[in-house]
Amino acid sequence: MRWLLGILIAASLFIQLGCGAEAEEEGDGMKIPKVNKIAIDGSGADWEKQGLSVTLHGSTKGETTDAFDFTPNLNFGWNKDGLAIFANVTDDVVHVNSLPAKLSNGDSIELIVSGKTDGSDSMKVILSAGADGKDEAVVRIEGRIGADSQRNEARVTAKSQKTGTGYTVEASIPFSLMHMDAKSGAALAMQIHTNDYDYGGDKNAISYPLYYTSKATESSPAMQVATLSEKTGKWYAPDIKSYKTKDSVFVYYYADEKHAGKEVAIRGGQEEWDRKPVAIRENAAIAQLQISLAKLGGSSTKLDVVVDGRLRQVIDVPSVETEDGKYPYENDIKAYEQRDKKALPPEGVTVFIGSSSIQRWSTLEKDMAPLQVINRGFGGSEAYQVTHFADRIVIPYKPKKIVFYEGDNDISKGTLPEQIVEECKAFVRKIHHALPGTKIYFVSIKPSPSRIKDWEKSKKTNQLLEEYAKQHEYLEFIDVSAAMIDEKGNPKADIFGPDRLHMNEKGYDIWTSIIRPRIEK
């Protein structure tokens, strides 16, 4: 089931209003910034230091390819001329389908967009690199927005270029095609699919979406709201989790304290299954909703998460039951609690928490001496699970410092870098609310030989975590990865055990030499 959480990197606010809606409060929805004049020539030269930049990393099923095989980098902006988009696509084989009706069966960008935030009256704009190296991008419009597709296609300005690593497509789509005005605060619904269609037909095709819900043209909720902004752009990913037991589906909505009191509902079609307000508890703002499987039946596969009457996210009904109800590792946590009953660690201790790289650190206390430290790792864990159990195995100790290691398992199960950082932010919010004087150290994801295919995503996660840590004085980022790589750029083989994933004594010696001086300060 967790693959779903991995691929839910996105989901902006889906507002049930008409065009021209006022911008949402800061933190909600996708913000598309206003940009200066853009020369649509396929070069991307005008996008430096302006626009909203987003890199896509996986399909709706969590599938990924090698970064050199396919990586779409998108830039968004708007001005009086229209909605502007620049796609710089890394692609080892550029395959263009020259048949207009089959344009999306080749390397292409599909933008599904509507000037109405309920997603109605949408159109699909398909953009493809020009055949035979031509700079004229191929444009096709499909959908309900008008019968004269050819005339509408002529109104879209688009250019493309072949590059040494793939291709670019740059386009400007007039707002008049979307039946909306070009003004700050106006809102639209949108979705994007970037298609890589290497030679070999459907079996080699893969599509990376902007929002991780499929069939946007068949289901309006798969589109999400974006607001035109005068300010810097923003791409927001909410904290929504779902879990299945033998009797029920549980949905957790995590929010900032400012969202306390907002009504969260779960719907399927026209049926509302549960509704709860966001409440301050467990040192966070949470709404917990529950749906009986007997009531849900076997026909529903999608659930709508609605906040204050506005669709926030479309999620899949979990297909796999989770151990001991909502979260696994309950037995590990209970074991730590039993240990605490016998001898509660002293206040102000440094807590090391995270996945098996922490749990297996058997010499931690000796390695960190004379610092007082405790190990609260649980193998196989992911960032969101650490946040959930923090009330029981972190906060009660009132630690002065926390050393946090997660990301290995998150990435291997399909979670994208941006979502991992959002999960880490949720942990920080929870800890900082309960223990404002506690310092948190994020340890970088390590490069493991057995997971080398995930290393590019791990490096991206490390980069984003480091940038986030620099924004707060109570956060620090500790990079252990550089010291674990040899002169050829590969993980050092002699610091890992037989499984090529977990470290041996040499590996922990590296960690000790880097981490201890940082937390001793």
From TrEMBL:
<feature type="signal peptide">
    <location>
        <begin position="1"/>
        <end position="23"/>
    </location>
</feature>
<feature type="domain" description="Carbohydrate-binding">
    <location>
        <begin position="40"/>
        <end position="201"/>
    </location>
</feature>
<dbReference type="Pfam" id="PF13472">
    <property type="entry name" value="Lipase_GDSL_2"/>
</dbReference>
<dbReference type="InterPro" id="IPR013830">
    <property type="entry name" value="SGNH_hydro"/>
</dbReference>
<keyword id="KW-0732">Signal</keyword>
<dbReference type="InterPro" id="IPR010502">
    <property type="entry name" value="Carb-bd_dom_fam9"/>
</dbReference>
<dbReference type="Pfam" id="PF06452">
    <property type="entry name" value="CBM9_1"/>
</dbReference>
<dbReference type="InterPro" id="IPR051532">
    <property type="entry name" value="Ester_Hydrolysis_Enzymes"/>
</dbReference>
<feature type="domain" description="SGNH hydrolase-type esterase">
    <location>
        <begin position="360"/>
        <end position="510"/>
    </location>
</feature>
<protein>
    <recommendedName>
        <fullName>SGNH hydrolase-type esterase domain-containing protein</fullName>
    </recommendedName>
</protein>
